[in-house]
Amino acid sequence: MKSWRGFLAAIIFLSAVPVAISGQAVFGIDAEMVLHLVCAVGFAFIACAVFDFKIPGWINWTDALATGGLAVIFLLQGISPLLKNDALKYLAFQILGQRVEGWLVRLLLLWFVALLIFDSRGKTRIFGFLVMSVVFLTELYDFYLTYLGSSLSAAAGILKLLYLLPFIWLLFESKNSFEEKNDR
Asked: What span, in angstroms and rounded, lies between the C-alpha atoms of 39 and 35?
């Protein structure tokens, strides 16, 4: 296993939607709250996992800080309904969630590109290229919609699921050992 933390982070992110839906259906727990809390844990794992990959240190540190920030933002968004504090909810969703969160996610996406360039090989590299191409096109569409005064969430919210694709790729990338990759 190249990165057990990356592998676990990928599993956490890929299970976030089913866990949130199940929590609401079975226990009546707010799905959005569960989704934010699960993602907070996933971002914390990513913040540690970046150092398992052979990417220049400054890129890993930048992403560790970005994903650590995302973990904090998602944690605040997850606990704000529990605390029923309007100031915390405003901070978590309106201030941090509107602008800061978006830029931190884009830094994570750039880290995925760095992973593709510096440390991915063979079939996982091809898969990573396809995944990141789809995510790049989704980002372009989001910028276009923003320019028109809309958003991806408002126009085609289902497309936000495409942002899970890098975590499917991370699952495979984390599983590959360095020796296996050199044999290809």
From this structure: 6
